[in-house]
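Before the break, one more example. Copy the sequence into your notebook; we will annotate it together after we see the structure.
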Amino acid sequence: MRALGILLLTLLMLGGCVIQDDALDYRNDLTDYEIKKIVKEVLVSQNSINRAGIITSDGLQNIQTRTRSRDYYDRYSCQNNGYATIRFFDGDFSLTFSSGDHFGIDYEDCAFSPFYDDSNRINGSILLDINQNMQDYQNTLLDFGVSYIHTYFDTEFGKLYIDGDLGVHYDHHRYDNGLNITFTTNHLTIENNRFYEKEIFNNVVLDFFMDTYTLDYHYNYSGTLYSNYLGRLSFSTIDTMYGYKDQNPYKGEFKITNEHISLLVLPQDDYYVDIVVKNHYQPYENHTIHTTWINIGL
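Here is what the structure looks like once it is written out:
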């Protein structure tokens, strides 16, 4: 698994969030394989949200030096390839970013590589609402809300479609060499066209930190998830998850719960991981799966 990588996720698009009778949350007799599948899908999902916010915000950096009129329109070349068209409305005539300003951005195969080596391309449209005054942040865009309008990223795993809202907040002040990003969403749908997978997130908070000098990272992740395969489940970080660069977490504790079971994910290091399975109705079936991240599929 890449800590900032992107796979993605669970199941057939049936025109909305419809939980089928064979979803995993309807059963209390899950196999170890199915348990590992749940862990994989939930942990991979934080990468998807992380990537969506980082790519979107990284692609906005060119905007900051361009928008200096109340009504602004510009088409510019992206970092590696493609184009982006900016539509800006300065609500308070300040000729700078301030709370209440609005952006529209249309991407055309826009490619750039934020913080890591792999290149990504983005198409579609997003809308942004600014939640800050630029003079308070040294003219850096750090606090904003994004609305995705069937925006999609081309990745090595197929097209990743995103619809919904995502709040993004950066903190460059707490750490000299660090980047702390908090993503929040009340409702976000992420769909992978290659694998016919679709997931719906609600009430998600992802707090992610990376030391840009040592490349150590840690995160806390919580929320609820719906999919036709996994069913309805909730997840939360009990102890902060720690890792390095693009490797799997080497310590922390992560909890995943549905109606029948609770799973505690306990990294032993960046290779081995334990999954403690607790059955809500049949405690005699409680057990621990000793496995590896690779065996889980990460």
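DSSP finds two helices and 14 strands in the chain. The two ends are 4 Å apart (CA to CA). Try to locate both features in your own notes.
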